[in-house]
Amino acid sequence: MRFYSVIANAVRSRRRNHLSPSRLLYRSTSRHLHSQPQSHGPPPPPFGIAFDIDGVLLRGESPIGASQQALRRLYNHSGELAIPYVFLTNGGGFRESERALELSKLLGVHVSPLQVLQGHTPFKQLVSRFENELVVAVGKGEPAAVMSEYGFKNVLSIDEYASYFDGIDPLAHYKTWITRKAANRSTLEGMTTRDDVCSQRVQAAFIVSDSVDWSRDIQVLCDILRTGGLPGREIGHQPELYFANDDLAYQASFPSERLGMGAFRIALESIFNSIHPRALQYTCFGKPNPFVFNNAEAVLKQLVSSLYHKAGHGNDRTHHFRRLYMIGDNPSVDIRGARQAGNPWFSILTRTGVFKGTDNHAEFPADMVVNTVEDAVDFILKKECS
Ligand code: G3P
Ligand code: MG
């Protein structure tokens, strides 16, 4: 029996059983996913979902509307995942395993680290290039721990790196907060003294998450970037610079959007280009880059494979998604990205975050506009399961 006919039967029998559609969906998907046929059970769903986080599911740490209930519909009655989905966020600052735990708590469902795709997740691909080189990680949270988990062996947070250079931030003594400079010292290999750090060239700077102290970070990054990675020395070839995303703004708990990493990039670039003869060179990851969506598709296939392999339904290389839904709040990031990625992506724009318009967005129109993520999930389940 095909997947959608299993669900359709359940939905048809809804009136007889007087149960809510979502309850029936859990039941049917439970049978579908966990009845473990000996050789051939029903095939995996031909669709998957990618959820943006900020402005769709959460505002700061608070769930938006009924986003928890919307996600719960993707699990069976035992709380096991029934519909393959991932979180596709440009945010970050924490390891995927930690973020999965936090999302589980905030959203009330079990989230696996495999489902968490953050702006900085693709930095992993650069490990072979910088594995043993000194690199600096910038941003809120634990940027050095993130990079260290990816396999970078000589990574320092900018907090710690700056702490080795006396006077590098002339405003430091006006700043009353405490930086966690000692927290990541274990991530260093073979560099234990100030001289070790100050005499080794920084080969790359990674903006992992939003900068906390723009004035200090812009100052120190300009020092690193204009001197070839040796602050206080002469001008040298610019080390590599990577940003986890280029979001100008994003939706947090404040009613209007907040400045994001893209705004920080503009500030750094503008200042660097004013004090340096050559324009700043950099690479931005994150949505809307199409490779982020291709990677999300690959991860969704992996997810299907891990859920279904016991039932003998092939593997991540063979599963084909007829449709992948991107639910986002930012037209120039989420919708633009899904549109560029093309088939099988279908974009759904919510009005709960950066986008607050009544009609579709003029420049980056979505395939569909809805008020909330619950509306989006409702639409998807009705379309795919009846
Ligand atoms: O810093 C977070 C932000 O840039 C966007 O997060 O979940 O809306 O992609 P998200
Ligand atoms: Mg968003």
UniProtKB/TrEMBL annotation:
InterPro entries assigned: CDP-alcohol_PTase-I (IPR050324), HAD-like_sf (IPR036412), HAD-SF_hydro_IIA (IPR006357), HAD-SF_hydro_IIA_CECR5 (IPR006353), HAD_sf (IPR023214)
Domain of life: Eukaryota
Any one annotated GO CC term: mitochondrion
GO biological process, one term: glycerophospholipid biosynthetic process
Pfam families in the record: Hydrolase_6 (PF13344), Hydrolase_like (PF13242)
Name assigned to this protein: Uncharacterized protein
Highest classification ranks of the organism: Eukaryota, Viridiplantae, Streptophyta, Embryophyta, Tracheophyta
